[in-house]
Amino acid sequence: MIPTELESKALLGKEATDLYGRHLGRVIGIDRTPFGEMAGVQIEAPGGNILTARTRQVALTPRTVTVTPEWKLSSHETVLELANLRKRITALESLEDSREIDTEIYTELLDAQREGYLDKVKAGQELMASMRLRNSELNRQISDLTKYLVHARLGHKSGEVDDESLKLAQDSIQPSLRPLIAERNDISAELQNLQKTLPTRVEVSEPDRRTSQSHDLSRQVIVHS
Questions:
Q1: Is there a single domain that holds both residue 37 and residue 18?
Q2: What mean pLDDT, rounded, does the chain reach?
Q3: How far is the C-alpha of 48 from the C-alpha of 33, rounded, in Å?
């Protein structure tokens, strides 16, 4: 662990940008756990607003602090954890099929794996919903800025806007438009990855026999389109 003093010197006062190059502000504080470990940073944004970034979102470079969106980290985490849970369920089934595991232990382990899988699927669905809201907001902002740019170019073509005013409009709008498009493309790609990973349907059957029930739960918990 980096000593607290060195950590503070490395972070405090540094300019912070997001993953897409937008300026967020400067780091003015460090949140710590009761054990003194860094839990996150406080960033003073233009206008005096305070933003909070968790430790896992923060990457330190020689000139700046780069903040990765939480949705991107959570998306990668969800895809990885679901893949690992599927592998464990498949491995457990293999042990049961080859009779290398006691039925009672198999049922106990399967129930635990199934519960973990269903919890992660629910969390993944909630994450997708929040990402779709963010994607809609990005599309709205991109549409608005694009319209402003089109109006400026239209005015220039019609002679209502001179060259200097057109350049001013372009120089003002395009730097804001580029990171919005970059984030929109990124979140769209992450949504596609989540859609491929999350099941379209989760079924749980309730047969009479306990052994049959445990086996069916493992087979039916993952259903893709």
A1: yes
A2: 86
A3: 25
75's enclosing H/E stretch is helix 70-97
Q: Which residues of 212-222 are buried (b: 16+ CB within 10 A; e: fewer)?
A: ebbbbbbeebb
Q: Can you list the positions of beta strands (E) in 33-189?
A: 38-44, 50-54, 58-60, 64-67
Global pTM? 0.79
| Cα 67 from Cα 58, distance rounded (Å) | 5
Instruction: Tell whether 60 and 77 lie within a shared domain.
Output: no
CA quadruple 181, 186, 188, 189: dihedral sign = positive
Phi/psi of residue 38, each to 5°? -70, 130
Please tell me whether residues 33 and 144 are part of one structural domain.
Answer: no
Q: Are residues 159 and 193 in the same domain?
A: yes
Range of the structural domain that residue 127 is part of: 72-220
Per residue in 41-87, pLDDT (tens digit) is 999 998 889 999 999 999 988 788 999 999 999 999 999 999 998 89
> Which DSSP state fits 201?
B
Q: Who contacts 21 (Cβ-Cβ below 8 Å, separation ≥6)?
A: 178, 179, 182
Residue type, 3: P
